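Tokenised fold entry reproduced for everyone:
>
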Amino acid sequence: MADARTANLLGAFLTGLHDHMSNRLEQESAISGDGPAALVAIAYNEGRTVEFLRRTLTLSHSWTVRVVEKLEKAGLVQKKTGTDKRSVALYLTDQGRRKVQGIVRARRRCLDEVLAVLPVKEHKKLTAMLERMLAFLTGDDDSAEAICKLCEVDVCPQNRCPVTLAVKPSTVLRRERAMSLRG
């Protein structure tokens, strides 16, 4: 079992970092709430559906539709008919692409500032710890998309991404959940 103080500090750090980054991304993009993450997720998955975005953002369908409508109204996202004619495929406009570049840069600056409090020699240790914790948090493809929704895919290629490498098939997840219920 983890030391209670360490667990508490981790929770406080995650809350603080989330709030700090959310504020930065909202300032950079002039879009509140889930908008910045939605734009980045669409950028890396153009042509995917509103349902895909809903699972990536872990939101309700109706809330995801509202986020998309807000982005469309701002001229950042374009909706097109999906492959099955009932679904809606999402694409960025040129303005949306520029906005995503700013969001990704703001995220990087925010994280660089936080990491700057640690000596560079400790970054490798932190990287190894983060890789193990991210692998632990990863379930299926949907959870991987949710975890990496703001990631810079250029700096964490799929063949080295701890989240991608830890994705479990849904049958394994169902078996693990069933075993945990037993006991």
User: Anything to note?
Assistant: The chain has a mean pLDDT of 91. The chain has two domains: 1-117, 119-183. Residues 24 and 106 are 7 Å apart (CA to CA).
